[in-house]
Amino acid sequence: MEPFVKLTGNVAPMDRVSVDTDQIIPAVYLKRIERTGYGEFLFSRWRFNEDGSPKPDFVLNQDGYRDAKVLVAGRNFGCGSSREHAPWALDGYGIRCVIAPSFADIFYNNCFQNGLLPVVLPEDAVRLILDKALGSPGYQLNIDLEAQRVWDADEEVSIGFEIDAFRKHALLNGLDEIGLTLQHEDRITAYEKGRGL
């Protein structure tokens, strides 16, 4: 898993509440068995017409937003089914951080397992970021996981965020559950040898 330490990137504003995982990555694309290649299908029902042409009014199809690394949305982001494909699609598109006032629990946990940073900020801070991004395509945020801080160039937005210490450690070091387990490979091997395995 790619470590997450610091990020500076364009912000895509998604001024919607309760964006569910079926909108993030529609079920029709879940037949694939690999973890990669989902980025092109991110928000496909909202991004594309039936003939596959881009919908010009969707934020990720517009200049200043299509190369976003940060997505900012309303509360309860990632609700619905528990599909892990949702963070795979966000990451595959290039989005490394999602900021919202709240997240659905399973989606929130899946983000950490896949190298995405979900940042919970107060509604008023999210509203300010949404408004600035909507008014200025190409608006950027800086996210520093070690310092647990989000800020913009003029520091009109400058705010800290909370994160569990264990999850922070795992993200900073690019460790998913397998990576965390492999940190104890010597002890696991010694145990298996002792048991004759």
Total helices: the number is 8
The SS-based structural class is alpha/beta
| Element-by-element helix/strand order | EHHEHEHEHEEEHHH
Helix content: 25-40%
Number of strands: 7
Radius of gyration: 18 Å
Our estimate of the beta-strand percent is 15-25%
CATH level-4 homologous superfamily: Aconitase, domain 4
Q: What does the model show?
A:
The protein is of the alpha/beta class. The chain has a single domain, classed as Aconitase, domain 4. The protein is built from eight helices and seven strands, in the order βααβαβαβαβββααα. The chain has helices spanning 21-24, 44-47, 85-93, 105-113, 123-135, 165-172, 177-182, 185-194, and strands at residues 6-14, 70-73, 97-100, 117-120, 140-144, 149-151, 158-160. The protein has a seven-stranded mixed beta sheet. It is globular. The model has no long low-confidence stretch (mean pLDDT 92).
